[in-house]
Amino acid sequence: MQAQLPEWSNCLFDEGARYFAIKGGRGSGKSRSIASALILRSVQKPLRVMCAREIQKSIRDSVKRLLDDEIERLGLGSLFVSTDTEIRGANGSLFLFSGLRSNIDSVKSMEGLDVCWVEEAQNVSQASLDVLTPTIRKPGSQLYFSWNPKHVTDPVDALFGDSCPPRTVKKVVNFTDNPWFPDVLRDEMEYDKRRDPDKYSHVWMGSYLTNSNTRVFKNWKIEEFEAPADAVHRLGADWGFAVDPTTLVRCHIIGRTLYIDYEAYMVGCEIVNTPDLFMTVPESEKWPIVADSARPETISHMKKNGFPKIMTAVKGPRSVEEGIEFLKNYDIVVHPRCIHTIDELTLYSYKTDPLTGKILPVLEDKKNHVIDALRYACEAVRRASISKPQTFTPIANVKRW
Q1: Concatenated DSSP letters for 215-257?
Q2: What is 220-387's CATH number, 3.30.420.280, 3.20.20.480, 3.40.190.10, 3.30.1240.10?
Q3: pLDDT, tens digit, 9 for 90 and up, residues 355-377
Q4: What is the pLDDT of residues 96-151, one digit of tens each?
Q5: Torsion from C-alpha of 136, 137, 142, 148, nearest 10 degrees
Q6: CATH top-level class for 7-177?
Q7: Do domains 7-177 and 220-387 have the same CATH topology?
Q8: pTM as predicted
């Protein structure tokens, strides 16, 4: 019997372990590897296996289809009989399937289980864990947990955190550990890696979900580039002093891509030192700068000290929201030297309802100083896109196919 399994999966055959904690990102092959390991073990000797998840409304929600597919892939179809609700081995092995939340009493009544495999364990409640672990009490019995991490506070992550139960095998596996990572998933992974670094980190690399759902910007990536010689640079500035930073950002637009290549950022910057700060952005004195209109005295000082093309931003009702939506319509590429821009694009978020936790259509007024400067830099392009008259092709000139 020859089975192709990734190297890391050797640990799944450790009969001396009590717990297997296998977590990681999408495409790692962890579920398929566990399915293969349990099938192979159940052929070697009779095993009574329960496959569980927190909620299982029907057998379609279970891993039964995965087990059936692995039995065929391994060429072991003659050794198993699969019914609508269970899988039986010729040697007496048995695979059962159950939801924990709705069937916890039936789980408690199951006798003589050798193995329990809990899939999508990130969704398992503490109440289910409290009942499950003492239920699987046969001498030598084992519990497999597989999951894609969400929050460090989830019960399964708390159980297998820095301090694990005795005899625990703990593995973090990602697509990089899967030698048979399929091309169709690779295309999705590469797209997320380019477009949404936070999503890539969570979905594909198994990092904990931070504020991904509340994040404003998911349309950006970090990449080194050089601005073309004919680039039209757009610069925006936001003012600060004691707590908030004074910022300047430089960008240019090519098609539907917004490139950010330089930034200036300083907390506690005196007005007299602001020209020197802005000069750290190449050619900033040569190009127009659109700045926050809240500090006319600062703008006047800058005009007199080397920045004659600086001008005030035009604000109005919903200018912040409309400016943010405009930026979200572009693919944003940030040069790695723009560390504060990267920080703000990562953390800028919508507010959440403190009572329900639901995301509100209201922008948080923090981690947005470079982003405000970026809005100002692109203001003229945004307004031009609004005022640009639409053109229509006369019906008579439409080519018919």
Answers
A1: BS--SEEE------TT---EEEEE---SSSEEEEEEEEEETTE
A2: 3.30.420.280
A3: 777 778 788 777 789 999 999 99
A4: 998 888 776 667 667 789 999 999 999 899 999 998 888 899 999 999 999 999 88
A5: 40
A6: alpha beta
A7: no
A8: 0.57
